[in-house]
Specification:
This protein is an alpha+beta fold. The protein contains 11 helices and 6 strands. The protein has helices spanning about 1-25, 45-50, 50-80, 90-120, 125-130, 155-165, 170-175, 180-185, 200-210, 245-275, 290-300, and strands at about 30-35, 40, 145-150, 190-195, 220, 225-235. The strands form 2 sheets. A 4-stranded antiparallel sheet has the order 4-3-6-5. β5 and β6 (about 225-235) form a beta hairpin. α5 (about 125-130) crosses α10.
Length: about 300
């Protein structure tokens, strides 16, 4: 029996491996990974559910894990149905409540999506929103801008550092000498909180808090890579955030606020329309006497 299971396991692994090849070639149509009763798990179904970063890390293991979980869930569902649990009144009520919640959530998502498509947020609105909430946008700690170069060769790090000191433009230095030059150029345009800036590189991170603007750190070696930084800007704790730093966040906050207002307005209109169409009544039966009757009933039951 153990040998049969081993053979099945090897065959299943081979099948998934072939299907992983299909992922790379794009031929995933109707590829089946498992069956429970009349339900089939296809490769496309699994790919839609598995996060892309897991597929990139280990596609074979990710598919195996998802398949095993799918089989377990299908077996549990089949057992619940065989026991006719869905016919129990409490289960019926929970299923009905869950269905209603899904429908309400789908409606809210639809309203918000429509709002997002139709809403335009101008730079003027962003600036006004910033001014209105400026006091809430004070920096909780020191923020810095810096240039960070990394390279596997000490001689290259020295050359890059000298060129930067001599005034060679940072994009040119980064492209000529640094690993991941595009990211290094982009990151140098942003401000970063001191507490989290390069905290994966402790020998470099300590210079962020001590360098003066324009100063370049000594070259440091971390995990076989040579690094140095140049501080090019700093904002003290308590300063106001520059709106350009958080423009995208301000835009998102404005959009969320408009979505909330639009949704509340939509719900209010539903209420008014229901009243106008005589589809809604509110019965004035709530009073202190009603509450006392309910309270006495509970005491009698006890």
């Amino acid at each position: 029996m153990g040998r049969v299971q081993c053979i099945i396991g090897v065959f299943a692994s081979f099948l998934v491996l072939c299907q992983c090849t299909d992922i790379r070639t794009g031929d995933t149509k109707n590829v089946q990974l498992a069956r429970v009763g009349s339900n089939y798990l296809t490769l496309d179904d699994a790919r839609e559910e598995i996060p892309s970063f897991l597929l990139k890390q280990d596609s074979l293991q990710s598919l195996r894990n998802y398949r095993e979980n799918w089989i377990r869930e299908q077996l549990l569902l089949a057992e619940a149905r065989s026991l006719k649990l869905e016919q129990q009144e409490t289960v019926k009520k929970r299923l009905a409540n869950a269905r209603e919640e899904v429908l309400k959530s789908a409606l809210k998502e639809l309203i918000i999506t429509q709002t997002s498509k139709n809403v335009l947020i101008s730079d003027h609105e962003i600036q006004n929103y910033y001014e209105q909430h400026k006091e809430q946008l004070q920096l909780p700690e020191r923020y810095v801008r810096f240039r960070h170069l990394e390279t596997p060769e000490l001689s290259i790090a020295r050359t890059a550092r000298e060129e930067l000191r001599a005034g060679t433009p940072w994009p040119q230095v980064a492209r000529n000498y640094s690993l991941a030059p595009k990211a290094k150029i982009n990151n140098a345009e942003k401000y970063w909180p001191v507490s989290s800036a390069l905290n994966e590189l402790p020998s470099i991170q300590r210079y962020i808090a001590t360098l003066d603007s324009g100063a370049i750190s000594p070259i440091q070696r971390e995990n076989g890579i040579y690094h140095f930084i140049q501080l090019i800007g700093a904002r003290a704790e308590g300063d106001y955030s520059d709106p350009e730093w958080i423009k995208s966040e301000l835009k998102d906050w404005l959009l969320i606020e408009k979505q909330r207002k639009h949704y509340n307005s939509y719900v209010k209109n539903l209420y008014l329309n229901a009243k106008e169409d005589n589809e809604l009544d509110v019965f004035n039966v709530l009073s202190t006497d009603t509450l006392n009757i309910d309270k006495n009933r509970n005491q009698t039951t006890e």
